[in-house]
Amino acid sequence: MKHERIAIIDGIRTPIAKAGGLLKNIQAETLGAHVVQELALRVGIDYDRYDEIIIGNVSQPVHAANIARVIGLKAGFGESIPAYTVHRNCASGMESISTATAKILSGQGEIYMCGGVESMSNIPLLFSPALTAVFEGLFKSRSVAEKLKNISHLRPAFLKPIIGLMQGLTDPTNGLMMGSTAEILAQDFGISREAQDIYASMSHNKAQAAQMAGIFAQEIVPIVYDALRGKMMMDDDGIRYDQTPDKLAKLQPFFDRKNGTVTAGNSSQVSDAAAAVVVMSESKAKELGLEPLGYLSAYAYAGLDPSRMGLGPVYSTAKIFKQTGLTLKDIEIIEMNEAFAVQILANLKAFASVAYAKQHLNQSTALGSIDESILNIHGGAIALGHPVGMTGTRIVIHLLKALRQQNKNRGLATLCIGGGQGASMILEVS
Amino acid sequence: MKTNNFTLTVVEGIATLVFDIPDSKVNILNHQSMEELNGHLDALKNNKEIKVLRFVSAKKDIFIAGADITEIRSLDDCDRAYEIVRRGQIILEKIAYLPFPTIAVIDGACLGGGFELALRCTYRVATENKATKIGLPEVNLGVIPGFGGTQTLKALIGPSKALELILGAKYINGAKALKLGMIDACVPQGYLDFKLEAFTKAILNPATREAILNKRYKFTMVERMFPWLITSVAYKTVMQKSKGKYPALLAVIDIFKKTNGMELTRALEYEANTFSQMAVTPESKNLISVYFAIEAVKNEKPLVDKEALLPIRFTSVIGGGAMGGGIVWLFAKMDLLVRLYARSFDKAAQTLQHVAQSFEFLKKRRSLNSREVDMKLSLISYGTDLNSFGHSDLAIEAIVEDVATKKQTFKDLEAVMRDDAIIATNTSSLSINMLCEDMKHPERFVGMHFFNPVEQMPLVEIIPSKQTKLEVIATIVALAKKAGKTPIIVNDCPGFLVNRILLPYINECAKMLDQGESVERIDALIENFGMPMGPFILADTVGLDVGYKVASVLSQGYGERMEVSKLLDRAYNELHLLGKKANKGFYLHEGKNKKLNPEIELLKSGKIRFTDEEIVDRALLVMVNEAAYCLSEGIVKNAQHLDVAMIMGTGFPPFRGGLLKYADAYGLEKVLHSLLRLRDKHGMRFEPAPLLRELAHKGSTFYKGIR
């Protein structure tokens, strides 16, 4: 097994659109094909030299099983380039990169196209089991009488659909929606609604500043979202300009209507987008004379209590620090995915807490307190949106670009993962 | 004479007659094969052993391609034509009177006489093979189905669909043919062997045979009670579309009308009689001449071996206007990856809109489904820089007709593209040799001139420079063919071939207008000649700005002969008329309606009117004369290529056989005299080209050339 860094040659993404908005008529595989094709063209490596295409996707559309293969072919890759899809919930976009890393380091291949795609607009509504039973009966019935008999079983209540999106965001082992796990963190750490709204508002303010400064434009490839009308989407559309905590205070709690603190406003947005990166070993990049955007020097995944999944970054970061011997002091910028404002705030507390470290991480010292001025410096998923399968790839790209802009070298990209996991990656510019 | 076009085998009562003309890629019904078939049919009818007979072709992708067109071309006598075609009817009719059932096994092209043979069989089984196309396209050659097709097809699928098929010269694939009732079964090609066995068994069993026959088309009430309604509707449509310029179309309708309720033998005689009249018309001779000209262009020997062609997988298009958008569409339709370079993302969005709408049209016509369109659209990417052009195997430029801008573009492209990648220009008139003079690798540069709208116009002029490599020319020719276009190689000169000939004609019409003639009269006379639209409607459609620019380039290149008409100059430079795109040109356009633009009256400098004949002569002979120059300068290979280019590129009426065929029919001596008369009256631009003088003096024609 080789031990060397993985070069991330370049990375791009589509604009992130609010679900049900501009990109709602574009399926996930089309979003993915758009960025994969564009990136392959920009990177300039012959299409046929790629070993494989690995794409992360959460809500795997029924019409495009193994979406990575569909993306490869739609993007113009030859039939001989294999492709497969990876799933690690919210870290799927990151998983695509770490899977490729493992393959490169074990000598299975050299050049990989990775990425994450999600069209949350297109997660279907499902028939209830009762309605499905009626349909099954109808398909089987041979005579009109039989058909009528089956139809007579139909009740208006059967017509209520199951919302696929909500099911996807519910942990099947404990029945908690992701927002409810966030409420648990608010209780565990005593984080108020006000504190959450202040954080959320800041996320919008920072993203607004970054968007106005053209920072996101450097990673975005515009996409035609309505070809027949000639409409092009250029920028993320989730950012609310001039957001304030006061405005956010008006929203009703969504997950616990009576006592809750988590609202649609201080949670990440439901969105559509795709992102892609090209990865290879550092030595391969040198051999090809490429100048990589940056390098992946370590990654780690860790598991924890699913009902507190938001604390995932604490666990995976503790693990990666143990692996590498690095500490928070070595980290110059942190991208921690903003699933919920309260989840970020809870992570800050857990990172800084010796007690938490002792009890949960089996270590005597705290991970350290995070300097908030290096955390999510351009805002995060609360402002931009969280197309679940795509975010992992996005924060890797964004962190590397941000490090370059600020003349910094090393950063930490980390996410909490529904189902009770955390993911962390150490990324370096030089 | 003993021939061996057919081989008969009989196994357990199942006879198979294999048609396989020796040393030929195709099967056709010529005199020889028809007579041999006749012998077989006479012998077969007394063969008591046979239970069923199957007609099979040994040719790949061809059942029977039709009758021998050279034989039709040689028919110059009505009576003889009648004899031949009547004999054909009688021979094929023998199939119907065999004492056992017959099956035509159609795996490939089954056209004209070939389908008429199949129609005489009891059953027809076809395959889903892409090459399987069935139809009666005789009208394309100015004749009509003459081996009973009008009667047998009518009986099988009813008069309205039969008329549609014959008048439209439609090629129908297996699946659709089954739907229309033209065949009894359509099976995947790979299953043909055992499906045919099953079908054969099925027709030998009375119960299953009944089921097959019951699926046949049943005439509608209208078809049974009011057949005249169908022919009168067809007549109206034909008159609207072809303005009565194609006698064969009217003859088909006439047959359908007259043979209603007629006893079959008399109806067949009527058909044969009509055929013989059509076969000797000049329209038919001209259409056959066009057919052979197109075949000659198609079968032009490739410049290099297939292996030497450069691979084209990644294409790039620079400029997303009407032409650029059309080219992006075409490449995506061919399943090539296309990179669009646009000045801004907004411009790219507009181009994508154009492309998507063109695909939408194909979707509505059902030639592509949503999934296919989606896949093709996803092959298109767009950007505002040349970063990704390292992948491109071919970049084609379709930006403004400005030398400096184009040269800069080629410089930029050479900086990012591989040295062996092709760079093409879609310029409509600028010299190719001049455009590439600053290039590092001019040998990969070539002109690839599409016509507007790219989606519909079949012609592509391919213009090599003096340095263009043969592989590059051959690759572009192959690409254009693969795109379903007709490529014609043209030598470099201002305006290339088609615009060089067409512009003087528009210019001449403008000069007549300037002298006092009317827009409407000229347009009407030219349309009556057969051009798809009059010169002023054409100018409005193309855009006066575009027309003026090309006219100026030509005037610079050819001097007095192509001096831009004062009226055109003033219409563009003083009145700033642009044509249809600004709703104002020679006409005022309101949606689909148009009326004369009164401002044009003010531009006229004279009040002279001309005779009909002089108007048509001035418009057409100025083109003939320029075409003669093109031929003698070697701009185009020969008269056939030139005529195909004019038909494909300008819609020059095919029933005229092409521009030079028209001149040949006019008589070159007469052309010469008319030109001299026009020269004396209107100026030196009518001075006859030396080649024309020479041909006229030798009593030769453009098609025969100088011997």
Characterise the protein shown here.
The complex is a heterodimer of chains A (430) and B (707). Chain A is α+β, with helices and mostly antiparallel strands. Chain A has a domain at 6-123 and 269-421: Peroxisomal Thiolase, Chain A, domain 1. Helices cover 38% and strands 18% of the residues of chain A. Chain A has helices at residues 28-43, 67-74, 92-105, 129-140, 144-151, 164-168, 178-189, 193-212, 245-249, 282-288, 312-324, 341-352, 354-361, 381-384, 388-405, and strands at 6-13, 17-18, 52-56, 83-86, 112-119, 125-126, 162-163, 223-226, 231-233, 271-281, 294-303, 333-336, 410-417, 421-428. In chain A, the strands form three sheets. In chain A, strands 1, 2, 3, 4, 5, 10, 11, 12, 13 and 14 form a ten-stranded mixed β-sheet that branches. Chain A has a two-stranded antiparallel sheet with strand order 6-7. A two-stranded antiparallel ribbon of chain A has the order 8-9. In chain A, strand 13 and strand 14 (421-428) form a beta hairpin. In chain A, helix 3 (92-105) packs across helix 15 and helix 7 (178-189) packs across helix 12 (341-352). Chain A is globular. Chain B has 707 residues and is an alpha/beta fold. Chain B has three domains: 6-280, Alpha-Beta Complex (2-enoyl-CoA Hydratase, Chain A, domain 1), CATH 3.90.226; 311-489, 3-Layer(aba) Sandwich (Rossmann fold); 498-697, Orthogonal Bundle (N-(1-d-carboxylethyl)-l-norvaline Dehydrogenase, domain 2). Helices cover 51% and strands 12% of the residues of chain B. Chain B has 31 helices and 20 strands. Chain B has an eight-stranded mixed β-sheet with strand order 13-12-11-14-15-16-17-18, sandwiched between helices. In chain B, helix 14 (282-298) packs across helix 28 (639-650). Chain B starts with 5 loop residues before the first strand and ends in a 10-residue tail after the last helix. The mean pLDDT of chain B is 95. At the A-B interface, helix 1 of A face helix 16, helix 17 and strand 13 of B.
